[in-house]
Amino acid sequence: MSFRNWDEVIAHFSTHQPTPEQLEVLEKMKEETLEYLRQQIANYNSKIDGTVYRVSSAESHIEVDQLVSDLLYYTAERNKLYNKLKELE
What we know:
Helix content: over 70%
Radius of gyration: 19 Å
Largest sheet: none
């Protein structure tokens, strides 16, 4: 039995009772997923900090525009991961 994402896991086990072994594996997978999400959030926080620092030394409006665009992207991606983390916790 294999799943592509957590939605498939949830859908399957909403109609099937997991065995104790499956439950143990699911708990381990969940913890690994939570740790991965935390690491990715930390990576985006680092990118955000670095981008904010680079904005202060930007020399052109074009460079500032690109950095602000990057900042908005990193923030949106970080927020998506944070929301997924809160769902799983």
